[in-house]
Each structure stands twice: as structure tokens, then as C-alpha cells.
Specification:
With about 260 residues, this protein is of the alpha/beta class. It has helices at about 20-25, 40-50, 65-80, 115-120, 140-150, 215-225, 240-250; strands at about 10-15, 35, 40, 55-60, 80-85, 90-95, 100-105, 130-135, 135-140, 155-160, 170, 175-180, 190, 195-200, 225-230, 235-240. It has a single domain (about 10-255), classed as Spore Coat Polysaccharide Biosynthesis Protein SpsA, Chain A (Alpha-Beta Complex). The chain is about 25% helix and about 30% strand. The radius of gyration is 19 Å and the shape is globular. The relative contact order is 0.17.
Length: about 260
């Protein structure tokens, strides 16, 4: 399992209601919304695993049982096998199961993002872990991200992408984030694209289940000079609504070289 010297846990926040994508999320959580025949969460885990990070903790909430069922059935749906019904025996003919270790934890139905992270503390070993959202797909160079995090030596690094719609960042010098604002207030070209590397001590900035990680914790880290941004100019797409889903699906079904890693 520790195939890379940079081994660490990867936390995926997958517990939200996905209300802006209600056309798809009435019966399933957003990370299971299908894009070109695969759920969103498959694309996220595939991106990490392709770079050697394959030990995941998924923070479940809304429809969390569906996520658990998906991973429980993944081995069966991925393999070719023969079943001897009379003897209740299964023979795997061609294993296509991805080399992923996935821990699924119920972090509460109405818990905020920070609260979900705090509830996972006991499952995170080591001093550093990775974190991202269950609805954002990217080809970010994760090893370069990790090197950047280690080089600046601070508590938190997020991946900054160009899409001024979510939490905006004021970045100076070699990546230091001087302020973090959850709502769009100006035309700053960089926003928080997820794909974070965090010291485990960051969890101490989270009060309880009601804490949104994007408000007090990230803002406080920025104020203390402990938050840096790794600028990513490559592929990144978050699925926030039906239009986003359709756009990502179109890209994944195309010959766009940016999405080659998901077709190998």
C-alpha cells in the first residue's frame, strides 16, 4: 500500500446535499453523479492513485449508504468471474479492481465541512494529509503540490485555479495567501480549487460540527501566514450544477488530451 515515499491519507469530503444539482442528487450523493459512465468520485480517486496516493478516507453524510454500496460492489462490477452456483463458489478470471484502500466514515447528515474533517481525526495517521472535495476533478501534479508544501514549511496548502466564482484568494510572493474570502468580492483570478495538503494540526482550528472549513479555519490560517497556494494552470472542473455536469461529460467523452489520465 505504501508504494510511494510520499504516502499519506487522502480525505475526500463527500457528505453534502448537492442541492444545486437536485436533478441528479434526489436519490444519490453528488460524488456518485455519473460522468461518461463513471461517478465523479471515481475520477477523483483515479487522479490521486495514478500518482501513487491510493489510501482514502471518505467523509460520508447525505446518502452515505449509497457511497458505501458503490465501493462494496466495485470489486464485483470491475472483475470478470465465473460463478459455480451449486457450490456457491466464485472464480475471478480477470481482475480489474483498482489498487485503492477506501475507508468510509459517516460524519453526520448536517455536519459542515470543518466538522467532517474533525470527526476523521482519529483515522488520519501521520503529521500530514491531503484533502479535497468530492465534486472537483483535476489533473493537478500532486507530487509537485506536495514538494511545494514541504518547501514553504507552513501548515496548509491549497490548489489555486482560475475561476472567479467561489472563495477568492489574495496571493503574494511565492504563494503566501494574505487573505481568504469565501464569497466573491472582486475579480481576483484565483480561487480555492481544493486539492490541499494540510498539517494535522490544522484540525485544531476547527471548533465543532457547525464549523465550515472555508470560513474560520482557512481565514485564520491566512491571517497567521500559515496558508499557501499552489497555482495550477492545467485542467480543473467542479460540478456545481447541471450545466457543469454536462460540460465535464462533454470533455470526458472527447479526445481532449487534458483528460488522458482517466482513459488509460
Amino acid at each position: 500500500m505504501h508504494a510511494t515515499t510520499d504516502y499519506m491519507k487522502v480525505v475526500i469530503l463527500a457528505g453534502g446535499y448537492g442541492t444545486r444539482l437536485s436533478e441528479e442528487t434526489a436519490n444519490i450523493p453528488k460524488p456518485l453523479v455519473e460522468i461518461a459512465g463513471k461517478p465523479l468520485i471515481w475520477y477523483i480517486l483515479k487522479a490521486y492513485a495514478s500518482q501513487g496516493f491510493n489510501d482514502f478516507i471518505i467523509a460520508c453524510g447525505y446518502k452515505g449508504d449509497k457511497l458505501k454500496n458503490y465501493f462494496m460492489s466495485l470489486a464485483h462490477s470491475s472483475n470478470d468471474f465465473t460463478i459455480d452456483v451449486s457450490k456457491n463458489r466464485t472464480e475471478v478470471l480477470n481482475s480489474k479492481v483498482p489498487d485503492w484502500k477506501v475507508t468510509l466514515i459517516d460524519t453526520g447528515l448536517n455536519t459542515m465541512t470543518g466538522g467532517r474533517i474533525k470527526r476523521l481525526k482519529k483515522y488520519i495517521d501521520g503529521d500530514t494529509f491531503m484533502l479535497t472535495y468530492g465534486d472537483g476533478v483535476s489533473d493537478v501534479d500532486l507530487k509537485a503540490l506536495l514538494r511545494f508544501h514541504k518547501a514553504h514549511g507552513r501548515k496548509a496548502t491549497l490548489t489555486a485555479v482560475r475561476m472567479p466564482r467561489f472563495g477568492i484568494l489574495n496571493i503574494e510572493g511565492k504563494g503566501k495567501v494574505t487573505s481568504f474570502q469565501e464569497k466573491r468580492l472582486d475579480q481576483s483570478p484565483f480561487i480555492n480549487g481544493g486539492f490541499m495538503v494540510l498539517s494535522k494540526s490544522v484540525i485544531d482550528y476547527i471548533d465543532d460540527d457547525k464549523t465550515s472549513f472555508e470560513t474560520y479555519p482557512l481565514q485564520k490560517l491566512a491571517e497567521e501566514g500559515e496558508l499557501y497556494a499552489f497555482k495550477h494552470e492545467g485542467f480543473w472542473k467542479a460540478v456545481d450544477n447541471i450545466r457543469d455536469k454536462q460540460e465535464l461529460e462533454k470533455i470526458m467523452e472527447s479526445d481532449d488530451p487534458r483528460v488522458k489520465l482517466w482513459k488509460d
